[in-house]
Amino acid sequence: MLIGKTLSNRYELIEIIGQGGMAIVYKAKDKLLNRYVALKVLRQEFTHDEQFIKKFKRESQSAASLSHQNIVSIYDVGVEENIQYIVMELVRGKTLKEYIKENKRIDWKKAINIGIQIASALGHAHKNHIIHRDIKPHNIIITQEGIAKVTDFGIARAITSSTVTQVEDTMGSVHYLSPEQARGGFVNEKSDLYSLGIVMYEMITGEVPFKGETSVAVALQHIQGELTPPKEKNDAIPESLNSIILKLLKKTPDDRYLNTTYLINDLNRVFIEPNSSFVEDYFDDDAPTQINPVIKDDNNNKEKNVKDNKKGKNKKVKLVLSLIGIFIAASLLGALVFYLSSYFGVKEIEVPNVENYHIDEAIKILKDHNLEPEIAERKYNNEVEKDFVISQDPGEGRTIKENQIVKLIVSNGPKQIEMPSLIGKFEIEAINILDNLGFQIGEIKYEFNDDFENSKVYDQSPKEGIEIEEGRKVDLFVSKGKETISTPNIVGKSLEEAKEILNSYGLNIGDIKYEASEAHDKDYVISQEPKAKDQVQKNSEVNIVLSKGKITTKNIEVDLTNYIPNDEEKQSVVITIELLDYQDNTLNKVYEKQHYIEEGLLNIPVKGTGAQFYTVKIDGKKFTDGFISF
């Protein structure tokens, strides 16, 4: 246990926040930069194992080269007193595994949002020739702001032409293992995509697709087991999302997505076309060319003899064809000479510039130069005004023959698009919609909002239904959820003081209970719930317990002198005393004991607070009652 130890005279280890197969993760204080960090320490049992140390160093070297908003950052790497450690970004949140357990199933829109972020992180790593090889919900942290961060590149390695995983060397959870990893085959970026497919399957169904009593049983299912489509377990998901996950979970890597870019594009399209069949098969242009084998035939010898017999005839045919070809070539050559002599006799003209001219004026200029204008295309353009020339071919200054065609592309002006409604959509979903429609993302403002959950759009500018130009900036207003405040401390305050303090914070008094107290006077707060400094939403209620006052003892007189029981031979009775508390209208039994009738006049001590109504019962029947003030 290293809690309290300071490494490199800089990192003070405070508490354990996580443990894995190779390392223990501590929360630590970086004294130099005055910030908290996560510090991963290699377990002591592995510090003398050269193979494990190499893996641990490889983790730091791989992850330190990555810089992405969805990847946990690596700050420092060190060794001290045989303690190997990595200093990482301290992410406040919970693992995706914990998030799935809490929610059972994740809404498909949220699942896509998380999936896009994980894919974006993997895409960055893959571009840097690093594969993760251990993608699972345990290695993904969801921050308090809803951002997914991939961590633990513990068995990632640089991709080479000989990257092969040995089964006994695999350290990732078998439930998320790709078929090629399970069989010890070649591993590449598509192995990470398969694992991401398992993660997305689990997010929307609440369970992994393959289960078994042993790791080997689960691994075999990855290799040859039949997959139940996620839509059969959760019919609320769109058909397109179902198809994406099935594509990710293809047994053969070449049948999966080429890379994360194609995957992210399809995930974005689900928001716009949830039930369309747009998921396609992609083929890798860089894959090795397949050579079809030559098919042998037993009749080869017969065919050879036939060919030999025809050989003589073919020679005659070729001679005739050669003579015809010579004749045709001579005719074409004569025609070509005639055409060229005519062509080179035509006047040459330098093409004038007509770009950014009105089409009518451009046509006039070209005709004045004895050139033939042709409108080749009309297209929307945000830079060039409607009916003005965007471009020309040939361009200005080129020399061409008189009466030659100059092709023009003419602007239709900026495209007008009706503004869609973004209210109630997640921020990432709204951004994807705007991007697909050709709008730019303007300012995004984050504010607390009681009516919209965290990360959802509650307002937009321009508003829905307004036609605006393509490419224009659209501002979004995104909810930070309901505003939370720190609960004030009202213990020891009077009821009126407590109400005043809570109201000043935008909070209200909730349930009020009463208890006797030796520490607090009557009608003063003994305790509160939520506690002081707890984060609560505005307009929430705070439940309190008020003091009934300090407990005192008084005597209640019970006279048995003239008491005659129903059974005259009876010598003893059971005396019970109950107090009715007017503050909370509760009836409390404060005394019950057997007495002999011959005792006569009794003074029975009872404890209580304030003024209360008492009832004395003998053998369960009312004997006398009255008021008592403590």
Short key terms for the protein model shown above:
4-stranded antiparallel sheet, Phosphorylase Kinase, domain 1, 6 domains, elongated, single chain, about 625 residues, Transferase(Phosphotransferase), domain 1, 32 strands, 6-stranded antiparallel sheet, alpha+beta, Trypsin Inhibitor V, Chain A
Outline:
With 630 residues, this protein is of the alpha+beta class.
List the helices and strands and how they pair.
Blueprint: E1 6-7, E2 11-19, E3 23-30, E4 35-42, H1 50-64, E5 74-80, E6 83-88, E7 93-95, H2 96-103, H3 108-127, E8 130-131, E9 140-143, E10 148-150, E11 157-158, H4 179-182, H5 189-205, H6 215-224, H7 230-233, H8 239-248, H9 260-272, H10 300-343, E12 348-350, H11 359-368, E13 372-379, E14 389-393, E15 399-401, E16 405-411, E17 416-418, H12 427-437, E18 440-447, E19 457-461, E20 467-469, E21 473-479, E22 484-486, H13 495-504, E23 508-515, E24 525-529, E25 535-537, E26 541-547, E27 552-559, E28 572-581, E29 586-596, E30 601-608, E31 611-618, E32 621-629
Parallel strand pairs: 13-16, 18-21, 23-26
Antiparallel strand pairs: 1-2, 2-3, 3-4, 4-6, 5-6, 7-9, 8-11, 9-10, 12-15, 14-16, 17-20, 19-21, 22-25, 24-26, 27-30, 28-29, 28-31, 31-32
Helix pairs in contact: 3-5, 3-9, 5-8
